[in-house]
């Protein structure tokens, strides 16, 4: 799956193990949960090795909003439908949108 040059408009999940959090795209939450097709694709998913690493990412991003937990079944559906683009978090290498 090819990503657009500018990914700032795409919904973004953060993942540790089988736990998922909506980090960006709250305005699309209902459509994502209810299989609506009115949200930008793909949904990005940044995978972290630890909750500490994810917490540091959130702190560095300056996120002030509450992040929604997402059921793993929803993420499985996004994967099956080809709507999820997963990225391994690598701090400092510029690979994370």
From TrEMBL:
<protein>
    <submittedName>
        <fullName>Uncharacterized protein</fullName>
    </submittedName>
</protein>
């Amino acid at each position: 799956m090819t990503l657009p040059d500018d990914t700032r408009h795409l919904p973004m999940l953060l993942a540790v193990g089988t736990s998922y959090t909506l980090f960006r795209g709250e305005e699309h939450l209902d459509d994502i949960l209810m299989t609506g097709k009115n949200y930008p694709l793909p949904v990005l998913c940044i995978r972290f090795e630890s909750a500490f690493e994810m917490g540091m990412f959130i702190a560095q991003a300056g996120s002030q909003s509450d992040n929604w937990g997402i059921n793993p079944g929803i993420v499985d559906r996004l994967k099956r439908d080809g709507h999820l683009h997963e990225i391994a978090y690598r701090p400092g290498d510029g690979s994370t949108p």
